[in-house]
């Protein structure tokens, strides 16, 4: 059994959960500790004790530790990528790419640790000096999803440590292997005991205990909308700072003047790569009627050429769905799309040489924006293709959603691009690029039902991971 990491020690648990490969269910990856509320309490107490000194440590100490973590991730990228592909189902090139991204994030925040700025401001009163500084929040609970099992933990753990906070980290119970390898690297980086703690297990047990623990002052969560909403309510009882990244139903608008091969590639990437298991996936393709049929025909042809298979096999472009439960949910939405009147192309479960959760990408042709399949996040390789009369109609359709994470437009018009950037009700807007795929040094987050709280990543991470202090002093 792979243990938890609490107060600088590897700690076994009474029970464990098995971890299997969604590409090959006969492949048992291992057994991972199932934590308890008592484990969370020990981790929180250790973190609270460590925060008394870690928060006052030299920025260079923190920078050096983060640099060591980033370098170790790069040195072990193939091992980490192999584990990620094996347990999550992402293709091996995507998995290694995600691992490199995690290393880049740690290295970015290594530099940010020595660039934590403040302000010296003249007071409106004579002989009074004003200083505005940033200080660590304290102990932060980090709860991460299974779809990016190293990148998302990295963009939460790295800034937390950078700004002097201590961490209680709960990874998704579907992908504990990648998190455990990351924890091993962090454990070897020379942090004081209690600064970083890993408690694996079910969200209903470990996640709930983290949100409710009185020593944990802030919660950063990425996951589903229902869980995020419940977490916000619970965290409010303890007046905890919260940062929530939840769902998306992201539109990609394709105008009549778009470069069609570029648009097809952007839509394929956004809708189906990573098996569509991205909160930034292009799940609504809103296409001008003048090119609608040509676009659909080309998209269907291109989708049919995608190779679905074992995540570790050379040439695989679409890996398996992460779990049986997720596959069953995806298939139910495929059936629903047909019931709602869309023409369904693909979407069926596939057999392969190994027993796994394989699904052909699904296109819902002649979809309407008011269909449930066009409004509810499926989180699988399914895309609704919705016709639009003109730019204004396309923009209105794009914004008619409860979500607001990412949006995109493919167009050759500077006017359309500019208007879409200004009027799209999303936190991130892409022009002639897939809706999925972001840089690590700039803000990540959305609007409406997609996000709550300050942005993740880049320098904007300081807004969540620090507390602002204003100090006045009288010079006499």
Automatic annotation (TrEMBL):
Residues 10-470 form the Aldehyde dehydrogenase domain. CDD domains: ALDH_KGSADH-YcbD. One of its GO terms (molecular function) is oxidoreductase activity, acting on the aldehyde or oxo group of donors, NAD or NADP as acceptor. SUPFAM superfamilies: ALDH-like. InterPro entries: Ald_DH/histidinol_DH (IPR016161), Ald_DH_C (IPR016163), Ald_DH_CS_CYS (IPR016160), Ald_DH_CS_GLU (IPR029510), Ald_DH_N (IPR016162), Aldehyde_DH_dom (IPR015590). Gene3D superfamilies: Aldehyde Dehydrogenase, Chain A, domain 1 (3.40.605.10), Aldehyde Dehydrogenase, Chain A, domain 2 (3.40.309.10). Keywords: Oxidoreductase. The active site is at residue 245. Belongs to the aldehyde dehydrogenase family. PANTHER family: ALDEHYDE DEHYDROGENASE-RELATED. This is Aldehyde dehydrogenase family protein. It comes from Thalassobius vesicularis.
């Amino acid at each position: 059994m792979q243990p938890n990491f609490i107060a600088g020690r590897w700690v076994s648990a009474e029970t464990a959960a098995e971890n299997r490969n969604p590409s090959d269910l006969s492949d048992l990856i291992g057994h991972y500790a199932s934590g308890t509320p008592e484990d969370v309490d020990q981790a929180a107490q250790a973190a609270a004790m460590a925060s008394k000194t870690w928060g006052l440590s030299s920025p260079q100490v923190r920078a050096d530790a983060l640099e060591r973590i980033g370098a170790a991730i790069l040195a072990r990228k193939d091992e980490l990528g192999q584990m990620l592909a094996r347990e999550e189902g992402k293709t091996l090139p995507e998995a290694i790419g995600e691992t490199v991204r995690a290393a880049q994030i740690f290295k970015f925040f290594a530099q940010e640790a020595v660039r934590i700025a403040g302000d010296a401001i003249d007071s409106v009163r004579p002989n009074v000096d004003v200083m505005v500084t940033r200080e660590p929040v304290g102990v932060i609970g980090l709860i991460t999803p299974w779809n990016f099992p190293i990148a998302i933990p990295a963009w939460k753990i790295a800034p937390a440590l950078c700004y002097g906070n201590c961490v209680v980290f709960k990874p998704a119970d579907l992908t504990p292997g990648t998190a455990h390898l990351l924890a091993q690297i962090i454990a070897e980086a020379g942090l004081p005991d209690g600064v970083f703690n890993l408690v694996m297990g079910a969200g209903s047990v470990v996640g709930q205990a983290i949100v409710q623990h009185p020593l944990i002052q802030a919660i950063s969560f990425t996951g589903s909308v229902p869980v995020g909403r419940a977490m916000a309510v619970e965290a409010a009882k303890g007046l905890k700072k919260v940062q929530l990244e939840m769902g998306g139903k992201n539109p990609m608008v394709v105008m009549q003047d778009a470069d069609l091969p570029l648009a097809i590639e952007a839509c394929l990437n956004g809708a189906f790569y990573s098996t569509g298991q991205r909160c930034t996936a292009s799940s609504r393709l809103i296409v001008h009627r003048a090119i609608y049929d040509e676009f659909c025909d080309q998209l269907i042809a291109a989708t049919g050429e995608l190779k679905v298979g074992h995540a570790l096999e050379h040439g695989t472009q679409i890996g398996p769905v992460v779990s049986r439960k997720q596959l069953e949910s995806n298939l139910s939405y495929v059936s629903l799309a047909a019931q709602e009147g869309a023409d369904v192309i693909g979407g069926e479960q596939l057999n392969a040489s190994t027993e796994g959760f394989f699904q052909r990408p699904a296109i819902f042709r002649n979809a309407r924006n008011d269909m449930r399949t066009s409004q509810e996040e499926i989180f699988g390789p399914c895309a609704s293709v919705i016709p639009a009369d003109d730019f204004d109609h396309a923009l209105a359709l794009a914004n008619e959603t409860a979500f607001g994470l990412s949006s995109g437009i493919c167009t050759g018009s500077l006017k359309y691009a500019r208007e879409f950037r200004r009027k799209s009700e999303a936190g991130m807007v892409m022009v002639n690029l897939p809706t999925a795929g972001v840089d690590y040094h700039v803000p990540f987050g959305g609007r409406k039902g997609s996000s709550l709280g300050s942005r993740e990543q880049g320098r904007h991470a300081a807004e969540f991971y620090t507390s602002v202090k204003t100090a006045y002093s009288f010079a006499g």
